[in-house]
Amino acid sequence: MPSRSMLSSRSAVASAPPNIALVKYWGKRDESGNLPAADSVSICLDGPRTKVTMVPSDADEVIWNSERLAEPLLPPYQRVLDALRRPPHRVRIGVTTSVPVAAGLAGSAAVMAALAVAAADYFEVALGDPALSALARCGSGSAARSVPAGFAYWHRGALADGSDSFATSIAGPEHWPELRLVALFLDRERKLVSSTVGMRRTAATSPLYRRWVEACNEAAPRMRDYILARDFAALAAATREQAMHMHATCLTTQPPILYLSRRAVALLETLDTALPTDSWSATFDAGTNPIFLTLSQHLPDLVAALEELAPGIERLVARPGKGAALEAGQPGDTP
Ligand code: 2P0
User: pTM of whole model > 0.85?
Assistant: First the structure.
């Protein structure tokens, strides 16, 4: 571990993408390390990337898009830092992101993945990708999947210390360049039930929870095979089924959790009659914003249909992208 004087002039800069789960992480076997009950599968997007900078400070602080985060929001950041540092190393973390956090697009995943990569560099701890993924998981579970490039498989692991619970790349972004993801920002409000609370409630009260966990562990290896085979029709069907299974399970909690809106579901109903089923799919994270999957040749039809059904609603079109990475940066770049 480097001394404080060695670190006093250091800085580190890293960036990471959001990831969209095709097989969902919704349930923990251990909350303290965000250890999942089941395997999950996701795609890193090629943008927008979230940037994290780190410089020395007298006290830990996080400046999020120029605003200082309140003290109660710091523990996830400190869990990542504490895994690598010894007191009295304190840091100022700058986060620059345009990903809407808490609107169901897993914004915290990109932040914690970038933080893990920046922190390993800052504290001069050499970690391979699996260890970086496990480190990111300590900040937010889904962040484990924003470390590897392209298509990620998060192995739930079995060890109590979580060292075997990390994501690995199924294939890089170049494996399936025709794949497109379209996020539709129907709603930018903060969700009523956080993912952490929603998962806790689902595990504690849903009569469907046990079956849900089994279904994820069955679906994840199948989804990996569909990705490797570039079988879009099979991937589309399995993605739909997974998303709706998760949201149906949420509805059976006590009290019930409903992330979807009538508007979002109606949109899918109408699209189902307008477009061939095999040409698109949709998933939802813990929010009302649909994320569509399609292939480049079907993108114009999907976009035209969305423009007609949800005119003026902002969209983000992305492709599979690279994972978390260090960036060249200067201390002066920090917010
Ligand atoms: C996923 N989500 O697999 C699922 C689908 C939301 C719905 O991972 O408590 O923010 O920080 O580990 O990572 C959101 O969960 O939760 C999530 P914590 P996280 O993408």
Answer: yes
